[in-house]
Specification:
single chain, mainly beta, four-stranded antiparallel beta sheet
Length: 346
């Protein structure tokens, strides 16, 4: 490892070491601490942050006026974003730029760029914040960084995988990370302590979003190449049910009530609401622009904000009526979306 790279890594380690590491797991849409006070949760978010993966930019949206404040360049192919464990910094992963960009989560303003993090398509901290995992969608690899006393340890353990690692989730005990492999039609389970692949299994065409039902009972996997969500008993490594949602079932966002979960159906341009306890679809939201993808929900659970990958738009859905209220033009291929405060990710 050369001196320049060592210096860059040390800078990244130092930056992360100053962050508190006692927060909850950060999902792709950056969940906040579910134990926040009622006063904090009651506050309304002001700025929505949208990643335009095809425009290499961020759009900042005034959520009250429902209009774009500005756009600024951030890096090539910004796809996903997550809150850091201290809940004070939002990290944007630029997959094609091989870097991370730190953002002020409240204002959406750029703070710092961390170079030489390779192909960070998707990323996340384990619930105990001892592991930092990066899915390399382009490089067909998963990088596992141990975190010790708040410091990311370099170099990462690199696990070569079948084609196109995509979305990540973790068991509550932080022992296992699950990663979908889109172009291999598989999901892989990784034992984090041993930093090795535990098992992998076929689940259906183009698996993307992955979620765990309450008590980690089942895995839910969105099949973008089909029209359903697979229910997997991950302990037995078998599919126990399929929930028909819509063509292009892709990504998940929980309502925040500990029971209901939204799934975006990119091809049908609908969003389905699932009951994670009964494993049934309970509603569909229709009449949407093309390509619904990532989602976030206001803390009062009244508005669902959605990026529409194929429409260069963000939409606002009234969750009381399940009707689209507003669309806002943004950049090309909008993907990750975030605001704070937001609804719980439980």
């Amino acid at each position: 490892m050369n001196t320049k790279f060592n210096t860059l890594i040390k800078s990244f380690v130092f930056f992360l070491s100053i962050l508190a590491v006692n927060g909850p797991i950060a999902q792709s849409a950056a969940p906040l601490n579910a134990s926040k006070s009622n006063d904090s949760v009651s506050l309304s978010p002001k700025i929505a942050i949208v990643l335009n993966s095809g425009s290499a930019s961020i759009s900042r949206i005034d959520m009250q006026k429902r209009e774009v404040i500005d756009d600024y360049p951030v890096g090539k192919e910004p796809h996903h974003l997550m809150m850091m464990p201290d809940q004070k910094n939002l990290v944007v992963a630029n997959a094609a730029s091989d870097n991370l960009v730190m953002i002020n989560p409240v204002t959406g303003e750029k703070k710092q760029t961390i170079p030489n993090i390779y192909d960070p398509y998707q990323l996340g901290f384990s619930p105990d914040n001892k592991w930092f995992v990066v899915a390399g969608n382009r490089l067909d690899r998963i990088d596992i960084y141990p975190v010790v006393n708040g410091e990311i340890q370099q170099p990462p353990k690199i696990l070569k995988t079948p084609k196109t690692p995509s979305h990540i989730n973790f068991t509550r005990d932080s022992k296992i990370a699950f990663v979908t492999l889109q172009d291999s039609n598989e999901i892989v389970a990784i034992q984090l302590e041993q930093q090795k692949i535990l098992w992998k299994m076929q689940v259906g065409k183009l698996p993307a979003g992955v979620w765990l039902t309450p008590e980690d009972k089942y895995l839910l996997i969105g099949l973008t190449g089909e029209d359903k969500v697979q229910v997997v008993d991950w302990r037995e490594q078998k599919i126990v049910k399929s929930i028909k949602t819509g063509k292009g079932a892709h990504n998940f966002r929980p309502l925040g009530d500990g029971r209901h979960l939204f799934v975006s159906n990119r091809i049908d341009s609908t969003i389905s609401k699932l009951d994670m306890l009964t494993l049934e679809k309970v509603a569909d939201i229709k009449g949407l622009p093309a390509g619904p993808d990532c989602m976030d929900i206001t803390p009062d659970q009244k508005e669902l904000w959605v990026s529409f990958r194929f429409s260069k738009k963000v939409g606002v859905i009234n969750l009381t009526t399940n009707q689209l209220e507003k669309t806002i033009k943004v950049g090309k291929s909008p993907h990750g979306i975030f605001f704070t405060p937001n609804a719980s990710w439980n």
